[in-house]
User: What shape does this take?
Amino acid sequence: MSPTILREKGYRFYFFSREGSRRHVHVICPDGEAKYWLEPEIELARNHKLSRVQLKEIENLIEVHYDEFKKAWEKHLGR
Assistant: This one.
């Protein structure tokens, strides 16, 4: 199961239900996908085919929605 947390600007942000305990979020769009750590700070963990411009836009969206991602992680995956 991979619940969608947010859809914005053509990106889908989601979690995998059975993946590690360190908070992170996955993002996918038609051009590629990425994974970002949410703690101890926002950091790119993996990138597949996304440009620097797209990665910066994604990181900005994560910053704006950080509290929402954190609450969704805790609700869905526990802490």
Notes: The chain is about 30% helix and 35% strand. Helices lie at 52-64, 66-77.
